[in-house]
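Lecture 7, part 2: worked example. A protein chain together with heme C.
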Amino acid sequence: MNGVRANMRYRRFAVTPFFLFLVTPLYSGQEQSSLGIWEGIYTEAQATRGQTVYQAECASCHRQDLTGQDMSPSLVGVGFSFKWQGRNVQELYASMRYGMPQIAPGSLSNRAYADLTAFLLFSNGFPSGDGELSSDEDQLALIEISRKP
Ligand code: HEC
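Predicted complex, written out as C-alpha cells:
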C-alpha cells in the first residue's frame, strides 16, 4: 500500500524533468553557446583525477599514453577525432559509463566517468575552465565535440 502511494508520487514528479528536457532546447540557445567545448567545460583538477583513474583502470589496454594496442582503440589524436568529432559529450561519456572497463562495464562511479571524460578532453587538446564537467547526461548531450573554431 505504501509502495503504491510512493510510486504514484514518483510518477507525478517524474513528468517534470521529462517536460523540461523537451522544452530546454527551445529556450537555451544562449546558454548552449556559453557551454561550448572550446570555452573550457572541465577543470584541470578534474582531468588530473581522471588521469589517476585512467592509469589504474584503463592503461592496461589503451596504454599509458592512450595510443591503444591490439583491439583497444587509440583515445587520442586522429583515432579520437575520427570517432568523436560531430558527436556530443554524452555519447563519449556513455561509451565509457556503459562499456568500460571492458571487463567490468559500469563498475566506477558516475563522477569517475565524468573525470575520465575530462581527462580524454584534456588529452585531445580541449581547454580546461572554471567549472567541472557534470555526469548529467542530459547536460552532456548539449555539448558538441566540435572542431577548433
Ligand atoms: C580489457 C581491456 C580494456 C580495458 C581495461 C578498457 N578498455 Fe576501453 N576499449 C577496449 C576495447 C577492446 C574497445 C573497442 C571495443 C568496444 O568499444 O567495446 C574499447 C573502447 C573504448 C572506447 C571507445 C573508443 C572508440 O573509438 O570506439 C573508449 C572511450 C574507451 N574504451 C575508454 C576506456 C576507459 C576510459 C577505460 C577505463 C575505465 C577503458 N576503456 C578500459 C578495451 C578496454
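The mean pLDDT is 86. Residues 97 and 109 are 9 Å apart (CA to CA). Keep this in mind for problem set question 3.
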